[in-house]
Amino acid sequence: MKFLHLSDLHIGKSVNGFSMLDGQRHVFGQIIEYVRSEQPDAVVIAGDIYDRAVPGVEAVRLFDDFLTGMSNEDVSVLLVSGNHDSPERLNYASRLLSEKRIHLRGVFEGALRPVTLTDEYGAVNFWLLPFIKPSSVRNPAGEREIDGYDDAFAAALESANIDFSARNVLVAHQFFTRAGVAPVRSESELNPVGGLDAIGAESIGDFDYAALGHLHGAQTVGAEHVRYAGSPLKYSFSEWRQKKSVTLAELRRKGDLTVTTLPLAPLRDMREMKGRLEVLLSAEAAARADREDYLHVVLTDEEEIIDPLNRLRSVYPNVMALDFENSRTGVDASAMRPTPEEIGRLSPYDLFSEFFLRLSGAVMSEEQAEIARELLETSGTER
Fold first, then answer.
1. At residue 137, what are phi and psi to the nearest 5 degrees?
2. Among 40, 158, 178, 277, which is disulfide-ready with 201 (CB 3.0 to 4.6 Å)?
3. Residue whose C-alpha is closest to residue 362's, from 338, 324, 332
4. Cβ 183 vs Cβ 215: under 8 Å
């Protein structure tokens, strides 16, 4: 049984005001090409199909195109909802779509039910678990006490009565962790305070493969067969060094698993640039990579710069974020804030100097100080 594992599409997402729809369409085309070339039996999507519970029209159209493209390649598609999705909306027409080999689990209905596919070695049960919270499992669990995410998942798993002597694949969108294994987190993920949503990965070790979604960096959780596929695109600058991919798993006889990753090339990469403005604007610097990339620029100039963002965008049109790193940014102006009594004793010039320091993180140069004195004297406020 060969299947592609992907997750966290976040269709319709915007990053720093830039729509990701064109980039998503670009990588979806690559995924469909992998379906053609690798000829998997199934494509598994482990949640966060959309970025918002109520997706925009263009996002819905793009997902429709993606599903249609995969359906045209004679492959089964199995997907679950994530914490960004609306379970009920995603579950719409699921029974009709199952006739087209598109199997949706948007809502947890009290018990896990498998989608069973067959190959030359027999049956493989795909257990599709949409994102659950303790409150969504409490009623179906009957008398079982549900105190947190661990209990909720245990109750959902018990509802399935899984025969682990057979081949079983879990598809889930939850935060699974293992003691001693530090997960790679991203700023684009929703991170509950204190990791309250964490579930021990030991509980899913008996599956032949666990196709997980939620973490945006591709990674294993203590074992080769327990894996996060990661998002197909970089959705924050905390991910700019990551290489995005989809995961190809091939499960033969029980216990015989091969996992490989297939790279995804973005329409526009996301990267960081750091240095002085004039250096970054030079033809030599601009030629080192694609000018159309999404950029986080860190300027190290000591002197003040007029309109740096627009100057950068004249060469790099997709600058998303701009920061400064110099001696001024190292000044802790808040620690220099005067008390009310001290403010009463300060002259207008001293007050302006304090304002300038708090605003810019630097003291005025001699030229700036002279201009400030002249303006205050002209207005008659300097004493």
1. -105, -20
2. 178
3. 332
4. yes
- Write out the two tokens for 293: 């990339």
Q: How far apart are CA 188 and CA 195, in angstroms?
A: 16
Q: How many CB atoms lie within 10 A of CB 340?
A: 6
In whole angstroms, what is the distance from residue 381 CA to residue 372 CA?
11
Tens digits of per-residue pLDDT, 186-231?
888 876 644 568 899 999 999 999 999 999 999 999 899 999 999 9
- Whole-number Å distance between alpha carbons of 210 and 226: 5
Strands (E), 255-318: 257-263, 270-275, 294-299
How far is 101 from 95, CA to CA, in rounded Å? 10
- pLDDT tens per residue across span 275-303: 999 999 999 999 999 999 999 999 999 88
* 43 in Cβ contact with 75 (< 8 Å): yes
User: Which two three-digit tokens encode residue 206?
Assistant: 């008996």
Record the tokens describing residue 65, joined without a space. Answer: 């195109």
Which residues are bridge partners to 271 per DSSP? 295
